[in-house]
Design a protein that fits this description.
The complex is a heterodimer of chains A (1082) and B (473). Chain A has 1082 residues and is mainly beta. In chain A, 7% of the residues lie in helices and 44% in strands. In chain A, the strands form 12 sheets. Chain A has a 22-stranded antiparallel β-barrel. The chains are: A mainly beta (1082), B mainly alpha (473).
């Protein structure tokens, strides 16, 4: 829960040692230290006085300065004359000025500090009143403002489970998507950088996997606009004030049918009253792929190729021998003469990873201007990111502009607008796995050079001497450049997010707010493949041009009425609201071929060979209500309810209710606790709520007709067929979640500990339930099935040392246990297969177990084969398949669970040190106990049409006297069916620890800046993804090639990609990024 | 009072804002038609019928079961095919297991096709259109259904008989029917088609099922059932219908633009030239893999065995009209590999890795009818018509290679192999005449009586464990 770093006060180290055995764990990772920057410098002169229309005569002008205990000015302190609505706010120098009547009471209040009330006693016309506010140690974090659905709450009043992160927490991180910076920091929130390409959206799963077929992405709420499957790349991280992640169903129930996967609320910045502040920053970074895959070199590959052909030739029988010359062999078994007579000519060959990847620079420049008066606050910002990708020819450029303005027209009316525009130009290849460039590059044979002597890319060039290898159809070359340089491609994306609102204070405490929000997204993609692609691709293909476009407009209107009243000890805050939202998505594509030459790359130069355009829509209407009640600000009770109606739901279930209730007890505020020095904060929270997951296809309930044309004579004859079974009962998935939390602060909150337990049951799972194929369909979309997620989350923040040298530690740990409680009719397991890999979901087990055979090594000799159950015809050197059901034979019934991507637990730890202007922090993140399926095994672990292989494969079984490492079987160009089946040979441990981030910054002393027009300056170095500790063969055990499930507009009977979480089919590596930056305030 | 007015005003605004039209949530699909208001008029049914015919594209696709019977027979084989193709080898080598993904694919595709057909049958029954039209549509659908079940019973043995649209719940109660029951259904369907379909010259559009087409399949079915009398009767009817003739030149039967000739009895209609058309997939699929010259890619399916190549008698023009012996690569070298030539379309435009060919596919043709007639009647006249076209000596003449093919059944077997080569007949022919085991074992195939049918896919049994497996799997 507790994320924000804390500045603090001094206490001896002995204390935490006594109370924190966990500290040992901290020490393991601690190897460096540094210092924390002190607060930003502030200007010396200038003052803007906020002084509302004061009444008249006989008044005293009061002015003064508000400072903290260290004497630093406090900006934005509210100075209010008691009993009136007059007041002022301190400026950037902490100065205020206002006119009051003699004897007036002035209250100084500031978040995180104890309020002070002072009487204006003097009789002079002018009075100076300097105030020192003290940090509210016991309740500091409790007064922190947390953004919740449709409003804010003080942390004190929060009864659900919400993780809140402020800008300071990710300010120097270089990620283009803010959520990348939060990975490992939030217990219960799994943020996976599944692909390393710039701009790739991480996969976010909050509190486990609650859905199999429907979407698992959380709902994003950007400045009040709820967006499903939003890409946070469209929000410049520098513009973000805070991120609040609503985890439990009681917090998310206010988002009704969209809350079940959790809610990520993004709030952008607004200037503070006072002097205008101008911030500029510049970063330069270098990205590298530091962890490479160990593949065979040319010599190893040649040996592998020769043995695979000879083994297969001999296995054909008929007296074949490995020494038979090519002339005696049929074509598939022939071996290039170069391999047998002069393999040395190839040397070590080409390392295609060196060809494909490069050191790539990035630059990021930002300017923002913010400020305002007590009536008007604003922020203008512009940011430009120019990032080359580590993959050849790929890049990512983003321009983001933002204007946020809020203006108080009168005591009753306030208006505001947030307007952001983001334009992204990028080329992003390599993220699709399988046949995309990163995967193909790995499969290319190392014997081929980067360029042939004719300058072409491959051996298919008839003018090259390399053409001699053409007869060997099992030599593989997918030259990375044939996909990056011989294809021109670009995405252009534009996103405009706009919010406008009007607030009307009807009477004190009663406020009406209406807003209109919209998100407009446009994307166009253009590509052109040169004819022949430089002879570097697996076929000499003709030129092709493609253009695609996407359009999406989402609009929302929202009307809420809030009532806020304190009556003695009773505090009440009530909200009712109505919202309506609509989205339309459009897609079109045009493909052109038959280009006469490569001179013109637009489609007009060829002839259009195919084209399509589609559109889909959804709409929803919601009513919502919430009541927050507290007694003595110590006992808290919250109830919410939302009623959602959606176009996606079937006619028999158009509307759903989503209620929640939660309660909190701030025990530490009880009288009996006040004496306890040790415990400064103790709070118990409990909640129960119901939230839905509406990420089902837009037209899921409807029986649709799809095109299936025939031909009549020489013309197309239109045909339509039923593509799915209708289901008028189709509706949202429903998650009921119970949450229990405890927050403990010890020794004046030097140690803060939060523990949470949740039990979440998702009912009415949306499943493409397998139905017997004799119906004509394999599946039917039905709300059936039940899955449980149950977990524990811990977070611990300690201020280990205070004073000039500060050291603090943030640690979190989370456990989630996922179990399927019920599936479709007869609880038939769900088995999905995609390119050999099988995942099976069955009752009593976690979602998506990897399901296949277990290989127990390799048969060393015939005697070993005879001694155990085996597949008929097994020969030495083939894998030992475990007889799982012990029936003495090896068949399909011996398939079993061989792993699951879900981790047993995940953890993150950050240590932060500060001294004078220096601040240093480093963060470790780890995931323990999960497995990953390496789908590239299909290409690189088994002989597959002549592709290159892992270097480890070279230790294969060669003969009974040279049986290799006992893991890698005898290569053959005709691998056995069992060798090609999905097995434990494909599954690896996904346990890993990552040094995720190191940051070092230095705030320049004010004295250095005295004669410059600069208020403050800071320089820093930030390193992301510094080092990975993992045994995984491929780039990264966090790589997942399959995207998280995003519902299509029409019901799909295909394999849900979300079921293949934790399957790596040649993903894009996550690079290490080292950035140098400077930030200057004017 | 002022406050109350304000509250009332806001309440009013809220109520106005909330009184949203009901239709806001009633959104119809934009890019798909909705099944609820379809299947009413004849025009609707013409569109529905087309989708039923379009199932032929799947059932007769190069990667489907009937096509793969070529590699199960002695005519076709597979060489090193790019990618992991264990499931394909297994079909060729009779080692397929119940978890073979191709076998499951076949199963799914047949029942998807049957759904389309049954759906039209159910809807036309309920539509209340005129009786002639209704019976004609039913005849077409039952022709397709009879043809498909006939294929299925040969591939899988007894299969669940689905003759109407069934729900998931109902489907658990539909188990495998005995082989005889499947054949009864096939005969019933085809008889209805024979009685209600027009002659070839009166079909509504080229490619639509005719009486002659239904009779030809029915003739084969009767032969499979050993009923030569009934077979003779329906095949004679085709023979005497005056609708069909042998083309004078065998090579003229094939070509990208050869469509619906006098010899064609039932032909699948393709339209090349655009990736969005149902283009002909055979040329690309049957070309050798990574040839890069004659096709951009090649599927390497149904490559031709020497056995077939050598089956042709000297001077038989059908050999060179049926089989390519290789191709010239980009450097001008000739690469020796035998592959099918019948669906060649070297000038087809290319989209991606696929030639957008135009060739139709003949499921049934008159030469087939003639050879079936000889098989049914024991009369070599029909066989000799087929031989006469290609200038080969008649069976019974002195020049006939009677040493090799001493009896009429063997002569028919030989003639069917060379006349109908690679047209997906050979394996079913051998099964029909009961010669499969003898012939294929002699050619080195590791086949047993039980392996002459495919396994029931494991997944089908997992879904409904009352479905039984074929013996030997």
């Amino acid at each position: 829960m507790k994320i924000k770093q804390i500045h603090s006060c001094g206490h001896p180290i002995a204390y935490y040692k006594a109370y924190l055995p966990i500290f040992k764990y901290v020490f393991i990772f601690t190897f460096l230290f540094c210092l924390r920057a002190s607060a930003y410098a502030y200007p010396k002169n200038s003052s803007i006085t906020i002084n509302p229309n004061h009444p008249e005569i006989k008044d005293i002008r009061v002015k003064g300065k508000v400072v903290d205990e260290k004497g630093l000015p406090l900006v934005g302190v509210t100075v209010k004359q008691e009993g009136t609505k007059f007041g002022a706010i301190t400026n950037v120098n902490g100065e205020y000025e206002l006119t009051v009547q003699s004897g007036a009471q002035l209250t100084f209040s500031y978040i995180g500090f104890n309020s002070q009330t002072v009487s204006v006693k003097g009789t002079a016309d002018m009075e100076t009143l300097n105030i020192t506010l003290k940090v509210n140690t016991s309740g500091k974090q409790l007064n922190e403002i947390i953004v919740v659905g449709y409003g804010t709450q003080s942390k004190r009043a929060v009864t659900g489970s919400i993780a809140s992160i402020k800008y300071d927490n990710f300010k120097d991180r270089t990620n283009s998507n803010v959520t990348q910076s939060l990975a490992g920091e939030l217990p219960g929130v799994s943020i996976t950088q599944a692909q390393g390409a710039p701009g790739s959206t991480p996969i976010i799963k909050i509190r486990g996997t609650s859905s199999i077929t429907a979407g698992t992405n959380p709902l994003y709420v950007v400045d009040g606009l709820p967006l499903e499957n939003f890409n946070l790349n469209y929000i410049n991280p520098q513009d973000i004030e805070s991120i609040d992640v609503l985890k439990d169903a009681s917090s998310t129930a206010i988002y009704g049918s969209r809350g079940a996967n959790g809610v990520v609320i993004v709030t952008t910045k607004l200037g503070k009253p006072g002097q205008t502040s101008v911030n500029a920053s510049y970063e330069y970074g270098i990205q590298d792929v530091t962890r490479r895959i160990d593949l065979m070199n040319a010599q190893q590959f040649i040996q592998y190729y020769v043995d695979a052909h000879n083994n297969a030739w001999v296995a054909l029988g008929g007296g074949h021998s490995a020494s038979d010359p090519n002339s005696a062999r049929t074509s598939a078994y022939k071996i290039p003469e170069d391999f047998t007579t002069n393999p040395g000519q190839f040397g070590n060959g080409t390392n295609w990873q060196d060809v494909m990847f490069r050191s790539a620079p990035l630059q990021n420049a930002q300017v923002s201007v913010s400020g305002g008066t007590d009536k008007t606050q604003f922020l203008f910002s512009v940011g430009y990111l120019n990032q080359d990708a580590v993959l050849d020819a790929n890049y990512y450029k983003r321009l983001s502009l933002r204007t946020n303005i809020k203006h108080r027209i009168s005591d009753h009316f306030t208006v505001g607008t947030n307007l952001s525009f983001t334009g992204i130009f990028d080329r992003t290849d390599g993220v699709a796995g399988k046949s995309d460039v990163v995967s193909l590059g790995l499969q290319s044979d190392p014997i081929f050079p980067v360029y042939t002597e004719t300058g072409s890319l491959g051996f298919r060039d008839p003018n090259s001497t390399w053409y001699r290898f053409i007869p060997y159809s099992d030599l593989i070359e997918w030259h990375p450049y044939s996909l990056t340089r011989e294809i021109e491609a670009q995405n252009k994306s534009f996103n405009t997010l706009a919010t406008g609102f009007l607030e009307y204070k009807i009477i004190d405490g009663l406020k009406f707010r209406t807003s209109v929000n919209a998100n407009l997204y446009n994307n166009s993609y253009n590509s052109y493949s040169n004819a022949g692609q430089g002879y570097g691709y697996s076929a000499v293909l003709p030129a092709q041009g493609v253009t695609r476009s996407n359009y999406s407009l989402n609009w929302l209107t929202e009307n809420t009425l809030t009532y806020d009243k304190q009556l003695g000890d009773h505090g009440l805050n009530a909200l009712i609201g109505y919202t309506a939202q609509h989205e339309r998505d459009e897609y079109s594509q045009l493909v052109s071929s038959n280009f006469p030459n490569d001179l013109v790359h637009t489609l007009n130069a060829g002839t259009a060979s195919s084209g399509t355009s589609t559109a889909s829509e959804w709409a929803m209407v919601s009513y919502l209500a919430r009541v927050n009640y507290n007694y003595k600000n110590r006992y808290f009770l919250t109830g919410t309810v939302r009623r959602d109606g959606s176009s996606r739901f079937g006619t028999n279930s158009k509307w759903g209710y989503f209620p929640s209730v939660s309660a909190g007890w701030l025990i530490s505020d009880e009288d009996f606790m006040k004496k306890t020095e040790l415990i400064s904060n103790l709070k118990l929270r409990a909640s129960y709520g119901v939230a839905g997951n509406n990420q089902i296809p837009n037209y899921g309930p409807t029986s649709l007709l799809s095109t299936s044309n025939y031909v009549s004579g020489t013309a197309l004859a239109s045909g339509l067929t039923v593509s799915n079974i209708s289901n008028p009962n189709l509706k949202w998935e429903k998650t009921n979640q119970f949450n229990l939390g405890i927050d403990i602060g010890i020794i004046k909150n030097r140690v803060n500990f939060t523990a949470e337990f949740y039990n979440s049951i998702t009912n009415n799972l949306l499943l493409n339930v397998p139905v017997p194929d004799i119906t004509g369909f394999s599946t039917q979309l039905t709300n059936i099935g039940k899955v449980r997620n149950r977990g524990l989350e811990f977070s611990l923040n300690t201020k280990n040392t205070t004073g000039a040298f500060k050291w603090s530690t943030d640690f979190n740990l989370s456990f989630n246990r996922n179990k399927v409680l019920q599936l479709g009719p007869g609880n038939a397991p769900l088995l999905f297969t995609d390119y050999v890999v099988q995942v099976k979901t069955q009752v009593g087990q976690p979602v998506s177990n990897f399901y296949g055979y277990i290989f127990d090594g390799v048969y060393k000799n015939q005697a070993a084969i005879d001694a155990s159950p085996h597949v008929a015809g097994t020969t030495p050197g083939e894998p030992i398949v475990r007889d799982v059901n012990k029936d003495g034979k090896i068949d399909a019934n011996d398939q079993t669970t061989i792993g699951n991507a879900q981790a047993n637990f995940a953890s993150g730890i950050t240590n932060t040190f500060s001294y004078k202007g220096f601040e240093f922090s480093f963060m470790f993140q780890g995931s323990f106990g999960g497995q990953i399926t390496n789908q590239l095994t299909r290409y690189l672990g088994i002989w597959n049409g002549g592709r290159n292989a892992y270097a480890g494969v070279a230790n294969y079984w060669k003969s009974e006297s040279d049986p290799g490492d006992g893991i890698h079987f005898k290569p053959s160009i005709n691998p056995t069916a069992m060798e090609q089946s999905f097995s434990s040979y494909w599954v690896e441990s996904a346990t890993w620890v990552r040094l995720k981030n190191i940051r070092l910054s230095y705030t320049l002393p004010k004295s250095w800046l005295r004669n410059m027009p600069v208020k403050g300056a800071r320089i820093y170095v930030n390193a992301e993804n510094v080092h990975l500790f993992s045994k995984y063969k491929n780039f990264d055990p966090e790589n997942t090639t399959y995207p998280s499930t995003v519902p299509s507009s029409t019901p799909s009977t295909g394999v849900p990609s979300g079921a293949f979480y934790g399957v790596d089919y040649g993903s894009y590596p996550v690079p290490r990024v080292i950035t140098f930056g400077a930030k200057v305030d004017f | 009072m002022k406050n109350i007015k304000r509250i009332l005003a806001i309440t009013f605004i809220c109520v106005m804002a909330c009184s949203c039209k009901k239709s806001f949530l009633e959104l119809s699909p934009v890019s798909n038609a909705n099944a609820n208001n379809f299947y009413k008029t004849k025009a609707d049914f013409e569109v529905a019928i087309n989708s039923a015919y379009a199932t032929l594209y799947v059932i007769y696709a190069p990667e489907e079961a009937v096509s793969y019977t070529e590699i199960m027979s002695d005519e076709g084989t597979l060489y090193a095919v790019a990618g992991a193709q264990a499931d394909k080898w297994a079909i060729r080598d009779y080692t397929a297991t119940a978890s073979n993904t191709l076998v499951y694919q076949y199963w799914q595709d047949y029942y998807k096709a049957l759904f389309n057909i049954n759906n039209v049958l159910d809807k036309i029954q309920a539509a209340g259109l005129d009786a002639d039209y209704t019976n004609h549509v039913k005849g077409e659908m039952m022709f397709l259904r009879g043809l498909y079940y006939y294929n299925m019973v040969q591939l899988f043995g007894g299969v669940p008989l689905v003759t109407k649209v069934i729900s998931a719940d109902e489907s658990y109660g539909v188990l495998r029917s005995p082989v005889a029951d499947v054949y009864n259904q096939v005969v019933t369907d085809l008889k209805f088609a024979v009685d209600n379909l027009p002659l070839a010259n009166a079909v509504p559009a080229p490619g639509r099922a005719s009486k002659g087409a239904a009779e030809t399949v029915l003739g084969k079915v009767y032969l499979s059932l050993g009923n030569k009398t009934a077979a003779t009767q329906v095949l004679q009817d085709v023979y005497n219908s005056g609708q069909y003739n042998l083309l004078p030149q065998y090579p003229a039967l094939f070509g990208a633009n050869v469509k619906n000739t006098k010899e064609s009895v039932f032909e699948i209609q393709y339209l090349g030239g655009s990736a969005s058309n149902p283009y002909s997939p055979y040329w690309t699929a049957f070309a050798p893999v990574t040839n890069g010259v004659i096709t951009k890619y090649g599927g390497g399916i149904n490559q031709v065995t020497d056995d077939l190549y050598n089956e042709y008698e000297a001077g038989d023009p059908r050999r060179d009209a049926s089989i390519e012996t290789g191709y010239t690569d980009a450097k001008g070298n000739f690469v020796k590999i035998k592959f099918p030539k019948k669906w060649e379309d070297r000038t087809a435009p290319v989209s991606g890795t696929q030639e957008l060919s135009n060739n139709n596919f003949m499921v049934l043709r008159y030469a087939d009818v003639l050879l079936l007639l000889s098989e049914a009647t024991g009369d070599a006249t029909y066989l000799n018509q087929v031989r006469a076209r290609v200038g080969l000596p008649a069976f019974g003449s002195a020049e006939y290679p009677s040493a090799q093919y001493p009896t009429l059944p063997l002569a028919v077997e030989h003639e069917r192999k060379v006349e109908l080569a690679l047209e997906f007949h050979r394996f079913f022919d051998l099964k029909r005449t009961g010669r499969a085991l003898t012939v294929l074992t002699a050619k080195g195939k590791a086949v047993t009586e039980q392996r002459l049918i495919l396994p029931i896919p494991q997944y089908v049994i997992t879904q409904n464990n009352k479905i039984t497996q074929n013996p030997g799997y």
